[in-house]
Amino acid sequence: MPAGVVNFMTGSGAEVGDVIVDHPKTRFIAFTGSKEVGLRINERAARVHEGQIWIKRVVAEMGGKDAIIVAADANLDDAATGVVQAAFGFQGQKCSACSRAIIDARVYDEMLKKIAQQTQKNHDG
Length: 125
Prior knowledge:
2 domains, 42% helix, alpha/beta, two-stranded parallel ribbon, single chain
């Protein structure tokens, strides 16, 4: 890969985000995070900055309210694994992050216990 193609920048999003978005040579922005920040990025990217020759493209995954439905006849171990992986995989920063679990009342208590155990295990391990 040619030098300069991939760069590593350190700093908080608040510290470096606007600089990257506003830079005239930035052509494409892919963002996953909050609606507030995503809208700020979209608004800033829509402005043409001095020296800019391209229209900036923005793909913003600003979180949905994805749900997992667990029926009473589901494999509860597999369902708990799915809930935990979907909720916390990639630190929850993805468009398919599970933010709700809709669980049949007949297995609710057991599922809650399994989800809590797997979450604790993943946190400790």
